């Protein structure tokens, strides 16, 4: 019989969690109860708060005596992050459900994020209708708005809890172990303005027995890709669209953090890298663009996305940053440079066409990449031309073949 873990503060919200437990069991599933509160639970638990605290070398009684909510949340959150993957690996549960306010959400979601992608995770939360990136990260947590506070049972909360229970039950009961034939996974980065390149390469790679996972280079996408590479899911990387570095440098909306381009380099994963969409920085509506950029070359992608053309100096800086990342490579890699444009709108007659900017970018890369494992290949084409995408895909297949010899 499948089992749903229910994690939460059984000291302060025992009524709500007892209701969820009864619901889950009525659906023909077992429950595995995890108490994340500081004080004694009012509901029987399979995993105690003492167990959670011990996972990070702490004593729950000492923590309770200090009456420091921030400390308690931090310790229990870190403990659950350590403990949940172990419990899942031991077969204790098949999916996990929780509910809470901002504190309860911050306490449980780090543990949910530590579980493998694909494990059902449902968080009913008072903060689920806002920016949930701090809670979800690059995981597949299903955040469900609680509408009313998680404080007792009423006509609204019981309906929400029921729907959440039905959702996790459906995920667990109807899980399909195998959908597609297992193939080596390729991670590819893509943006709207590099879509033709990645689509053409995907077709080429799939014809040669690879499965291609495409990540939208929106910050979250880059982080998710780096995480899966680091966790060992990925056989090869087709990192054509490194635009997130432009947002990182200029304060755009789609930065992926300073570890972007680290995972493949440091984990000896074959990779082909390019400079896709480094001609642009992403902002929201025009009114949200920082005042310091007034007078720059802008392109309205849609009402909510404003693109700003990168300058010669910014491209030089981007070249230095990416060269630094590629100099970390511990296995063979290739950097392909499209000499006729780095995006769909960096082409003759298009709004971001910039030969001088591209020249500065390419020069900085060629002058500063000193790692002999990184091959620099210039292609006399736009990044979206078939000759470029084919050359890049062929190179990745070559690197993968060399690794498997």
UniProtKB/TrEMBL annotation:
Its domain of life reads: Bacteria
Note the Gene3D superfamilies from the entry: Uncharacterised protein family UPF0261, NC domain (3.40.50.12030), Uncharacterised protein family UPF0261, NN domain (3.40.50.12020)
Domain UPF0261 intervals? 2-175, 183-399
What's the short name of a Pfam family annotated to this entry?
UPF0261_C
- Protein's name in the database: Uncharacterized protein, UPF0261 family
Look up and give the organism this protein is from: Dendrosporobacter quercicolus
